Amino acid sequence: MNDRPGLVVVAPDVRTLSTVDGLSALLIDYHLRTEAEKGRPVAGAAELPERYRAEAEDPEGAFAEAVVLVALDGGTAVGCLVVTAPADGRTEIKRLWTDPGHRGRGVASALLDAALAQAARSGARAVRLSVWRWRTGAVSLYERFGFAVTESWDERAELICMERAVEPQTPVHG
Fold first, then answer.
1. Residue 161 buriedness (CB in 10 A; 0-12 / 13-18 / 19+)
2. pLDDT in tens, 89-139
3. d(CA 50, CA 23)
């Protein structure tokens, strides 16, 4: 539940992602934290693997085929989530990240709600994601949203793969 009255989730035009205040910093924080958790800490963004650094430096290019959802609080990004285009009836959630100072305030839930709605609009039948085993809070959140552990499509150790069905959208008649 979103208990932040000023919080809004938007899907900026992918061609303007680099202009979203705070988005690049969120992506860098996500990757720095993940590398540290994997036992490969780096001192800063310049030392991140190229593919991760590219997301912060050129989000338009990195996410050209995806929808990036951004949670804004007072016009600044405090959370983000990437939803891939559907393939074989599935879409995938990537990069769900909430600024640590804004956790516990409904940011991730608001982003997940928006991602599931996006998946339904795109015609996907299922949404999948992968999460590091040690991110127990995230695993619990995904389970609350109806995701269940499924057979892995990624062979990286310590990675849990999860999936849930998408509820079709009911057309609105007016």
1. middle
2. 999 999 999 999 999 999 999 999 999 999 999 999 999 999 999 999 999
3. 18
How many Å apart are CA 144 and CA 51, to the nearest integer? 31
Q: What three-state secondary structure class fits 69?
A: strand
Angle between helices 50-57 and 23-37 in degrees, nearest 10: 160
The pTM of the full predicted model, rounded to 2 decimals, is: 0.90
String of b and e for 113-144 (b: at least 16 CB within 10 Å)? Answer: bbbbbbbbeeebebbbbbbbeebeebbebbee
Give the model confidence (pLDDT) of 23-72 as tens digits.
999 999 999 999 999 999 999 999 999 999 999 999 999 999 999 999 99
